[in-house]
Specification:
Helix content is 34%, strand content 23%. By secondary structure, the chain is an alpha+beta fold. The protein has a domain at 9-60 and 182-241: Arc Repressor Mutant, subunit A (Orthogonal Bundle), CATH 1.10.10. The strands form two sheets. Strands 5-2-4-3-11-8-10-9-6 form a nine-stranded antiparallel β-sheet. A hairpin with a 5-residue loop joins strand 3 and strand 4. The longest helix has 15 residues, at 118-132. The two termini are 35 Å apart.
Length: 337
Amino acid sequence: MADATTLTELDKRVLTEIQGGFPVTASPYATLAERVGGTEAGVYDSVAGLKASGVIRRIGAIFDSHRLGFRSTLCAIAVPPERVEEVAALINCYPNVTHNYLREDRYNVWFTLIAESEQRIEEILAEIAETTRIDDILNLPAIRLFKIKVDFDLTGERAARGEAPPIVKPAETEAVTLSAEEKALARLLQDDLPEGLEPFAGIAARLQDRGVDVDEAWVLERTQAWVDARVIRRFGAAIKHHKTGFAANAMGVWTAPEERVEEVGPIMASFKEVSHCYQRPSAPTWPANLYTMMHGRSREECERIAERIREATGLPAPRLLYSVKEFKKTSMRYFGE
């Protein structure tokens, strides 16, 4: 794992702020300076330094695939240890695969898959099974979403528990229809923000260069409207968490009675160390139905988090599947030209 990067107190405040919500304003670094303390130039230099050191992967939009009419799922395949690299490389060839990790389990290669339909997802999984000659594959689309908030607390100032967001059933999510101009904007928002103190003006200029007759005010209005409507699930900084000291992450897989799922899901989601919390279908070879992604500075810390969740929910102890290698981590590219 990469060594942690030394962060200044300003770096920590900035990172904690912009993971969950980079300001959608004409002068976002001035807005940030008001929130975290400091000057516009100082905050801009902090962000630039965090990008240069590799702590920040990019700043931009993470779209909700279901709001754009796509379908997504979490998959796992049981790969013989001697074939892990080969099979992971084959899976990575699909642009539909955004994340791919090696985890400690018989189902050891876990990947996310996004496509325009459930039929296409099934086709891709059938192709993977045929090509690898491994048909022991789990297809685990979300039934209920309790939390997605990749938002590490680097200041230590947040409460251990927070209020869980409303429960979402992705299959019932209503898709939006975007105009040609909006699709052009969406393409750019999936990239890293332009450099400079007024990055949204830079996006407007790029759109104008491509023949899209819009201005900065339109870019700001559309982007904020998408954030408010949850078309953009998160507009913020994607970070390499290992570089900030969070060296361990574990996917806790839990088994809960169906009648308790809506009770215990929000409890799990309330823990600040939990970034993702879902209900997913069980399978004959995989009885788990609740998933929590937990992040800590060590495996021991992840185990303590899991124990606190167990005590709060009264559920049996989970299986903890630790990430041991990252094969792929990217964002889905929607509306490719």
